[in-house]
Amino acid sequence: MKLRPNPTYRTKAILLHDDDVHYTPIEMELAFQVWRQQGQYRVTGAFARCVVMGSDGKWKYKSCGNGGYYNMVLTGLLFTHISFLEYYSSEDPMMSQIRDYVDKVFNCEDVAFNYMAAMLSCTSALQVTGPQVAFDARPPGGISTSAKHKKTRHECVDDFKNILGYMPLKNSAVHFGLGSKG
Questions:
Q1: pLDDT grade, residue 144 (50/70/90)?
Q2: Which parts pass through the membrane (predicted)?
Q3: What's the pTM?
Q4: Which own/partner pairs from 133-138 qualify as long-range (CB within 8 Å, at least 24 positions apart)?
């Protein structure tokens, strides 16, 4: 499981990233410094996503426009506090239920992690972007390109809200980037 902490880690900061997306050292340093100075108890990352209420009254997952609001950041590049990983992998019955759900649909681990972090911190995620788009070496047939990927994610965001009993995600329009003031 990607979100299980290694018990030998002696740090607060944990970097989660996909091995098929590459970043420059400057982008990594920027994301770390924003996390360290602004968001140690938030998820801080590059790839923002939105969860919005659909016309059918259910929550929907979508990409966000650059510079607009967002309420999640994906684990493709994300700094987080180790305590979030500890809680995500804990024996708390709600977290066990969420992990079982993720295992069943083989999707939405990053969404679940954002819900949990927002629930614990009562704050929004933080987006950090570098001067260029990260090099994406994902194969064209990956899980996120399948026809049912988006449908599954729509279901996840609504089901996680039901498991938690409320919508914990908070909208944010704060964007950190090189040369920006946030």
A1: low
A2: 69-89
A3: 0.88
A4: 134/21, 134/22, 134/23, 134/27, 134/46, 134/76, 134/77, 135/21, 135/22, 135/23, 136/20, 136/21, 137/20, 137/21, 137/22, 138/18, 138/20, 138/21
Q: What is the mean pLDDT of residues 12-25?
A: 84
Is the four-CA dihedral 3, 9, 14, 15 of positive or negative sign?
negative
Confidence check: pLDDT of 136 > 60: no
Considering the domain boundaries, does residue 5 fall inside one? Answer: no
Residue 108 inside a domain? The answer is yes
Whether residue 69 is contained in a domain is answered as yes
What residue type is 37 in one-letter code?
A: Q
Provide the CATH number for the domain around residue 137.
Answer: 3.90.550.10
- Look at residue 100 and tell me if it is in a domain: yes
* The two structure tokens encoding residue 34: 């924003």
Q: Say how far apart CA 114 and CA 78 lie, in whole Å.
A: 11
Total structural domains within the chain: 1
Tokens of 79: 């700094």
Full residue range of the structural domain in which residue 51 is found: 13-177
